[in-house]
Write a structure and sequence with these properties.
Length: 274
């Protein structure tokens, strides 16, 4: 131990491959660091600074079987981030959510005003695709520092580049202060790459030119595997060791029936005013 946190970089052709590589790299090369959530007897987490890149976010297979959570939960989370279906659950004075990523990105409140950062980002890229200023932030320096669970995502940054055929490609970077590598990162990026695709579609409509989602790069200051669930994590390691990549993943078509069940659940929630 020299006191330096390891800085690790991995990439994968699709989302499951990139996520799996990132989690394994953290486990194999991360350092032991305590967390503010540790209970007595918990081992320290395995931690590193991680840059992981998904070369083609929509290449199949897109679903990793080992992500902790159900496929219905994955679709609900995607809609929370992209569509804001649960923004109305924000109510810190009642002990409920203090923020959502969607609200911070699409309706950031500052000095009595509400700013749609994604619309501003789209407008900026439509004017100059090469701009370095197309970004959206989540952190509120007044509200977030004292809360128990402040936003992990800090910033999105986007830029357009033409490919060899002259088609516009939307590149996205996401910067995170902290991330549960095993239990949160996959779902986070599944949703954010869908937001990337939605932004590409808005740019195509605004510019009159086709725009596709390009590579997604994810930079995490603290990418960690919690000591509290090391025993559970052994199951992930055994899956990687004993199953082929095809046996560790599903194509999107496999998940679609469960996604539709989630959409129906959300429709009923809306009808009931929940």
């Amino acid at each position: 131990m020299n006191g330096n946190i390891p800085t690790i970089s991995v990439s994968g052709k699709n989302l499951p491959e990139a996520w799996e590589k990132a989690v394994l790299a953290c486990w194999q090369n991360g350092v032991a660091i305590k967390t503010e959530y540790d209970k007595p007897g918990d081992p320290p987490s395995r931690d590193c600074t991680m840059l992981w890149t998904v070369e083609d976010p929509f290449a199949e297979p897109r679903i990793h079987r080992a992500f902790p959570g159900g496929l219905e939960d994955l679709e609900v989370y995607r809609q929370e981030v992209v569509d804001g279906v649960h923004d109305h659950w924000i109510c810190p004075e009642e002990g409920k959510w203090t923020y959502t990523y969607h609200k911070r990105l699409f309706a950031y409140e500052i000095e009595g005003e509400t700013v749609d950062q994604i619309s501003a980002l789209v407008d900026k890229l439509a004017q100059a695709g090469h701009t370095r200023r197309a970004q959206a932030i989540t952190w509120n320096p007044k509200l977030d520092p004292p809360t128990y669970d402040p936003p992990c995502l800090q910033r999105l940054w986007c830029r357009l580049l033409e490919d060899d055929q002259g088609e516009l490609v939307l590149n996205m970077n996401a910067h995170w202060r902290s991330r549960d590598a095993y239990k949160a990162a996959y779902m986070n990026v599944f949703a954010l790459t869908d937001l990337q695709r939605a932004i590409a579609a808005r740019l195509a409509a605004k510019t009159g030119r086709p725009v596709r989602a390009g590579r997604y790069a994810d930079l995490v200051d603290s990418f960690h595997i919690y000591g509290s669930y090391f025993n559970e994590f052994e199951g992930f390691l055994k899956m990687v060791e004993k199953r082929s990549f095809e046996e560790r993943t599903w194509p999107s078509a496999y998940a679609e029936p469960m996604f539709e069940e989630a959409r129906e659940r959300l429709r009923k929630e809306k009808e009931e005013g929940r």
